[in-house]
Amino acid sequence: MGTPATPTRTQLDALLDNGYGLAGALSRLPGENLNYRLDAADGRRFVLKLAGEDQDEAFLTFERSVVDVLSAEGPELRLPRVVETLGGDGVATGYGGTRARLLEFVDGTPWCDAGPPSDARLRHLGEALGSLDRSLESMHLSEIDPTIAGRSHRWDLARAHQHRDKVSLVEGADRRRILEHAFHLFAAVALPRLGQLRRSVIHGDANDENLLVDGDRVVGLLDFGDCLVGPTVCELAIALAYGMLDSPDPLATGAHVVSGYLETRGLDGGEQEVLFPLVCARLAVTVSVAAERRRLDPSRGEWFVTEGPAWRLLERLADLDPVEAGRRLMAGLRSEPFADLGAPAEELLERRRRHIGPSLSLSYREPLKMVRGRGQYLYDRGGRPYLDLVNNVCHVGHCHPRVVSSGQAQMARLNTNTRYLYDGLTDYAERLCATLPSPLEVCYFVNSGSEANELALRLARARTGRHDLMVVDGAYHGHTAGLIDISPYKFMGKGGSGRAEPWVHVVPVADGYRGRHKGQGRDTGVAYGDDVGETLARLPEGVAGFISESLLGCGGQVVPPEGYFETAYRHVRAAGGVCIADEVQVGFGRVGTHFWAFERQGVVPDIVVMGKPIGNGHPMAAVVTTREIADAFANGMEFFATFGGNPVSCAIGLAVLDVIRDEGLQQHAHDVGTRFKAGLEALVDKHELIGEVRGVGLFLGVELVRDRGTLEPAAAEADEVVNRMKARGMLLSTDGPLHNVIKIKPPMVLTADDVDMVVRSLDDVLATLG
Ligand code: PMP
After folding, report:
1. Is 450 near ligand 1, meaning CB less than 6 Å away?
2. What is the rounded CA–CA span in Å between residue 501 and residue 485?
3. What is the pTM assigned to this prediction?
4. Ligand 1 mean position to 450 CA, how many Å?
5. How far apart are CA 69 and CA 246, in angstroms?
6. In the chain, N or C: fewer CB atoms in 10 Å?
7. 453 lines ligand 1 (CB under 6 A)
8. Where are the alpha helices (DSSP H) in 401-501?
9. Which residues, at least 6 apart from 562, have a Cβ–Cβ distance to it below 8 Å?
10. Which residues contact 604 (CB under 8 A, 6 or more apart)?
11. What is the pLDDT of residues 367-381, one digit of tens each?
């Protein structure tokens, strides 16, 4: 809070004399604001408060009205009532225009000086806060001046994330991890909920210096300078954060306060869910602000009084499951505070072994049981949030409400198949084609990327009358028998036959980092493109087509160098083949600069294959091609996919396109992706292990090597990084033929704050590796 310059004694005396006709002994009170105790000559006691720079007339009037409301009908608390000036005003103006108020002195022992609290005192604190909040809820928000209602400040708990970047000011990797976790919990669990919670005027700083006690009772509340309009539950969370400091059993201590609160006000489901994350966030704000102040002036001890206890408490709370911690805090509730979370992970693992095919793998050494998703986050059974950095399927965010409700509404209205006429199919086909360059204008709808690629191969074969295919080394195109045959990722990988079928022709991946044409600048792409021509020259029968992802996912987040597709497509077309772009991983705006990744290289494929993000998790996929190819395919045999293009899928597909457009997600992917890449690139100089950072938009890769000269892959290290990041609440994976590339392809709603957290955390994880 902005504080005016410290006044001189003469200035204060003049202010008191002119404003109130008072004189007496003045002593500065502890705290960051300019507050003075006045022992007046006539024996009365007051507190003189100088207004901070951000406390204008309107705020001071508001602050007074809050105390008035509470005095009239609030809890039995002694409050600092405003003393009127000689002119009958609440505010006195002194030297240099400084505004001041004189308040009645409130007697009582500050909570922090009253010794360890009894259970009864804790409970009474809860009761007093509950009735305080109820009284403040009687102030109608619509009647509050909008500038006051919109006021915020650095201690505003609903905006705790404003301090997130201060994590890097903290000494010690473990402390940074803990603090990062507290902010992450706030951002992922509390922040998305806060907007829907009950709002009211809150005192906003019921800390251990502002609460006055007498025995087991809370008898007074001071300092309304942090009053604001916000989620009411923040009031309780702030008081809890202080009340639990230095407690031998913080959650039991907190539970006493909460049970008192429940007596007088109650907490609804949303408030219950955010309470624990808010307590952690308040502690996080305290230690973050302390870290910042330490930089400014390490000698001002009074700035950091609660820093040590706040760290100790945060350290104890950080490793708790939020659901478990929430349950303990709300032990006094009659109902269960969290919805049914299903069976624990160990039990599911056991049951899965019995009934699910063993070739399905699980991510991470200790598999996660997820119970819900929202935006860029997944939440496990313990309520821990995970930042999802790998799921490019939930493109516009997990469970996006517009997508969900479009699907639900259509499912309740009509679901049939493409042998009937309905608007959704044609509406969607038109919208999809509008995203593509001419002459791509004919759609086929299926249910998975694999099905779409199978169909693409059939189209290519129908058009050319040939069977052979040209594929890129390391590529994956799907799980069907036919696609495993054209996926070197599979047939050369574990359990594969180790060789290509005679009709499959593998060309090198256009890898500018470790491939055979690396380091040729602009010519690298052309050289790799010419490899395609060379292979074709050895195939007099030609090929039906050349299939490649526009950026290679399983191949290791490889970005083919400029000129590659232009050259390769030229060779393929000259030999009578068609060009297929597999955009299953990278399409729909992910690359930021364009809607489709192939557009980056200025080429137009003959067939485009779409999957994963197209339905935001709903199983759908599409193939879009030219009229010419579509006509060649229409040889009399019917094409029909039972579920492909059904009304529900079309409604969902349309909603996804709407959200991408309305939320500006392509531009967002560009902006956030650029920040992400720059952040990762800044780590290259600090960590030898990083061989290369590559990618575009929100499709990025970090290749780890043990030696920057030999490029020896650091696969074990990459795996370790991924598992340690998971332990910190960030989901990544490894891929590439050498398993040493960390993949990043998050939902497109990832924020700049998320990016900064990932970069800071990777920095710490890499520093402690090996
Ligand atoms: N193509 C690419 C590039 C893919 O990454 C995938 C899936 N990982 C597929 C096709 C197959 O898609 P699906 O799993 O939906 O069949």
Report:
1. yes
2. 7
3. 0.94
4. 6
5. 34
6. C
7. yes
8. 401-413, 423-434, 449-464, 481-485, 488-491
9. 522, 525, 601
10. 437, 438, 439, 440, 598
11. 999 999 999 999 999
